[in-house]
Specification:
The protein has 317 residues and is of the alpha+beta class. It has 2 domains: 2-67 and 181-312, Roll (Nuclear Transport Factor 2, Chain: A), CATH 3.10.450; 74-167, no CATH class. It is built from 5 helices and 15 strands. The protein has a 6-stranded antiparallel beta sheet, with no helix packed on it. Strands 12-13-14-15 form a 4-stranded antiparallel beta sheet.
Length: 317
C-alpha cells in the first residue's frame, strides 16, 4: 500500500513539475530578455533556502507529531471508606485507578482522592490474594527494602469484585500527550511547538516561496487528497474533530520522496537563457546530496515573476 501511495504522490509531483517546466520552456520569443543573474541572485538564494521547509512539509517526513501513545483507561472506584479531616469531620475516601500493562502483568495506578489533597500510589491488582514472595519475585524491592518491611502491604480488597491491591515500587511513564482509542489511527496530531500549526499556516508559508499556480497545485496534495482508480490517498494534513476539540494532524500513510536536503552551489549558477525571459527564469546550479558530496549533479530550478516579485515554480529536493 505504501508503494502505491508513493507512486501516486510521485506521479502528481512529476506531473505538476513537468507542466510548469514545459510552460517555462515554450515561451514567446518576442518577450524581453531575462535579467542578469546578479540582479536576482539574492532573491533566488533566499527562495531556495526557504523552500527546504516546504520540501519537508510536502515531500519529506512532514511536520512533527506526538508519538502515538494511547491514554490509560481510567475507571472510578469508590472504596466505601472514609477519613476524618483536620477539622474532625468524616469525609468520603475515593479511588481513581487505571490499568497499565507491564510484562504481561496488570498494574493499577491509584489516585487517592480526599477533600483536601490527592495522594498517588501504584499497586499490583489481582483476582486473588498474592503471596508477598510472589510479588517480590515479580517486582524486586529497591535496595534496603523487602516484603517484610511492608513494601507489599495490602491497599484494599473488594471481595465481591475479587480485587486485591498491593503497593509495589512502580513509576508510571510520563507522556506529554495521550491519544484516545477513538482518535483516527491514520493521522498523528502535529506538535503544538511545530513551526506550523494549521492548514492556513502552511498555505501562507508556501505562498511566500512559490508562485500561485504551483502553490495551488500543492493544496490538492496536501489538503484535498489524490485519487487514482479505486485508491484514494487522503489529505496529508487535515483538521481532525475529536471529543476533545479540533487537532491539526498529519497523515501517517505517506513515504517520503527524499531523505536528504540537496546542497546547491550558488556560485555555479547560470541562467538558461534559451528557456528564460523577463517573467520566467530557469537557473541551473551544480548540486549534490550530503551522502554523495563528490557526485555533482546539474539541477535546474525555475522562477516566475508575480506582481513584480520572483517566486519558485518547481520543487528543489
Amino acid at each position: 500500500m505504501k508503494d502505491i501511495t508513493k507512486n501516486i504522490i510521485k506521479a502528481v509531483a512529476v506531473a505538476v513539475a513537468f507542466a510548469l517546466i514545459i510552460s517555462s520552456i515554450f515561451i514567446i520569443r518576442s518577450c524581453s530578455a531575462p535579467p542578469d543573474y546578479e540582479e536576482i541572485r539574492e532573491r533566488v538564494e533566499e527562495l531556495i533556502e526557504k523552500s527546504f521547509d516546504v520540501n519537508d512539509i510536502v515531500w519529506g517526513n512532514g511536520l512533527p507529531t506526538y508519538p502515538r501513545e494511547i491514554a490509560p483507561k481510567r475507571e472510578f472506584y469508590e472504596s466505601g471508606k472514609s477519613y476524618v479531616d483536620e477539622n474532625g469531620e468524616e469525609q468520603p475516601l475515593n479511588y481513581y485507578y487505571y490499568y497499565v500493562n507491564t510484562s504481561g502483568v496488570n498494574i493499577v495506578a491509584f489516585r487517592e482522592q480526599k477533600a483536601v489533597k490527592e495522594d498517588f500510589r501504584y499497586a499490583y491488582v489481582s483476582s486473588s490474594p498474592i503471596d508477598a514472595a510472589v510479588l517480590a519475585s515479580l517486582y524486586p524491592a529497591n535496595e534496603g527494602e523487602n516484603a517484610a518491611d511492608g513494601l507489599y502491604s495490602e491497599v484494599f480488597s473488594d471481595v465481591e469484585r475479587k480485587i486485591y491491591a498491593y503497593l509495589i515500587p512502580y513509576t508510571e511513564k510520563q507522556s506529554e500527550f495521550y491519544y484516545l482509542e477513538s482518535d483516527p489511527a491514520d493521522y498523528g496530531f502535529v506538535r503544538t511547538d511545530s513551526k506550523y500549526n494549521s492548514v492556513d499556516d502552511i498555505k501562507a508559508y508556501i505562498r511566500t516561496v512559490y508562485a500561485s499556480d504551483y502553490a495551488d497545485s500543492l493544496d490538492t496534495i496536501l489538503f484535498d487528497g489524490v485519487m487514482s482508480g479505486d485508491y484514494v490517498q487522503k489529505a496529508r494534513y487535515a483538521t481532525i474533530q475529536t471529543s476533545r476539540g479540533a487537532f491539526f494532524a498529519r497523515n501517517y500513510d505517506f513515504e517520503p520522496l527524499f531523505t536528504e536536503r540537496r546542497v546547491y552551489l550558488f556560485d555555479t549558477a547560470r541562467i538558461d537563457r534559451r528557456n528564460s525571459n523577463d517573467s520566467t527564469v530557469v537557473v541551473e546550479f551544480d548540486s549534490y546530496l550530503p551522502s554523495s558530496p563528490d557526485k555533482i549533479t546539474p539541477t535546474k530550478v525555475s522562477f516566475a515573476l508575480q506582481d513584480g516579485i520572483w517566486y519558485l515554480s518547481n520543487p528543489t529536493y
